[in-house]
Amino acid sequence: MSPLRLGVRTRDYAYALRHQARALLGPRTDPAGLLALPDAPATGHGAPVLLLPGIYETWRFLEPLARRLVAAGHPVHVVTTLGINRRPLDDAAARAADYLAEHDLTGVVLVAHSKGGLIGKALMLSPAGWRVAGMVAVATPWEGSGYARLFPPGSAVRHLSSRARRVRALSRERAVNARIVAVAPAWDPHVPGTGELPGALRCVRLAGSGHFRVLDDADLLAAVRSAVAELGHAGP
Question: Does the reported pTM lie above 0.90?
Answer without folding.
Answer: no
